[in-house]
Amino acid sequence: MQPFNYLRASDAAIAVKTAIQDHQAKFIAGGTNLLDLMKEGVETPQQLIDINDLPRSQIERLPNGGIRIGALARNSDVAYDENIQRQYPVLSEALLSGASPQLRNMATVGGNLLQRTRCYYFTDAGFSSCNKRIPGSGCAAIPGYNRIHAIFGTSDCCIATHPSDMAVALVALDAIIHTQNANGTRQIAIADFYLLPEDTPDRETVLEPGELITAVELPPLLFAARSHYLKVRDRASYDFALVSVAAALDIQDGQITDARIGLGGVATKPWKATEAERVLIGSPANASTFEAAALATIHDAKPQQYNHFKVELLRRTLVQAFFQVTGGEQ
Predict the structure, then answer these.
(1) DSSP string covering 222-284, please?
(2) CA 137/CA 50 separation, integer angstroms
(3) Residue 328: is its pLDDT beyond 90?
(4) Is 22 exposed, middle or buried (0-12, 13-18, 19+ CB in 10 A)?
(5) Is residue 232 predicted with pLDDT exceeding 90?
(6) Could you tell me how far CA 196 lies from the centroid of its own chain?
(7) pLDDT of residue 136
(8) How many structural domains compose the chain?
(9) How far apart are the C-alpha atoms of 280 and 255, rounded to whole Å?
């Protein structure tokens, strides 16, 4: 690990100003992802700005019925919050499916959103070809062993998958991300927060230098109480998703009147399954509809040499998730 300067910030404005002045600086809270990357030489910040003293850990209900989660709220606190479990079970389930209890006790909501990609070639600095680490160097994963890589949102420059379970649930819930920057504050729909790799895979979000995530807002989505997170992985615990589905369905008299679907483990960012939602809305909640929605989702998949299995696995996982949300049996 390279030497770095350390600043413990007690004021958000100071933290933001410091990060803007030093583009090589990084904010740190739980550090569960950043420190690992620093040890491997993948991340080499010249300065760490510790933001743990900022008052950003509350989980509070909003007047409109939604919930605001501070960016420094620990993943375990969010997962076990009674209001989250009752109103947004998909988020609680997603958090509990990720990492170990020890890591969840340290990891924060803001840090979870900013997890770096899941890719062998990115996390191992011994590989010189990685456009995320070294822009313009190429992508070793495309001709290499790409079993865990993306089948949606890829480019000729990058096929890495986004690792967060929480972010997949937040995509399904249409969450809003609150930030603070040099010009004040702004709100970013999570659908607009993550960037596709295209020609610049080293830039993963729309955050500007020094911009700090302060909170995540969950809208008052009443039918989110009928939601579920289904994760398929190689190991039963403490592993990244090969495929995951966050699903929330509004069903009235046997008809699906609204739907929110997020996908994980299959795309270069947390993926909104808009085609599945289109097929589901206005259709009966039955096996034929679920299968049609799943087939519509996988239609545009672009698998690599070693991850063709993800296409069929995603189809099956989607159908199973829909059945679990509706309480039916496959």
Answers:
(1) GGGGSEEEEEE-SSSSS---SEEEEEEEEEETTEEEEEEEEEESSBSS-EE-HHHHHHHTTSB
(2) 32
(3) no
(4) middle
(5) yes
(6) 13
(7) 97
(8) 2
(9) 9
**pLDDT above 80 for 329:** no
Contact in structure between 55 and 136 (CB atoms under 8 Å): no
Give the pLDDT of residue 327: 87
Look up the CATH number of the domain holding residue 38: 3.30.43
Q: Is residue 296 part of a domain?
A: yes
The residue-averaged pLDDT of 300-322 equals 98
Inside any domain, residue 118: no
Single residue among 28, 49, 70 that ends a domain in this structure: 49
Helix axes 287-298, 309-326, angle to 10 degrees: 150
Q: How much of the chain, in percent, has pLDDT values that exceed 90?
A: 95
Burial (CB < 10 A; 0-12, 13-18, 19+), residue 183, is exposed
Are the CB atoms for 256 and 283 separated by under 8 Å?
A: yes
Query: How far, in Å, CA of 144 to CA of 130, rounded?
Result: 12
CA distance 231 to 193: 23
Name residue 293's beta-bridge partners: none
pTM of this structure: 0.96
Average pLDDT, the chain: 96
The residue type found at 226 is R
Backbone Cα Rg of the chain: 20
Question: Please, are residues 219 and 173 in contact by the beta-carbon 8 Å criterion?
Answer: yes
Q: Which residues form the domain of 296?
A: 228-326
- The set of residues, in sequence order, having a beta carbon less than 8 Å from that of 81 and lying 6+ positions away, is 59, 92
The reply to whether 160 falls in a domain is: no
What number is the average pLDDT over the span 179-203? Answer: 96
- Find the mean pLDDT for residues 282-309: 98
Domain presence at residue 274: yes
d(CA 79, CA 152): 28
Question: Which tokens in the block code for residue 314?
Answer: 């995603």
- Secondary structure (3-state) at 102: helix
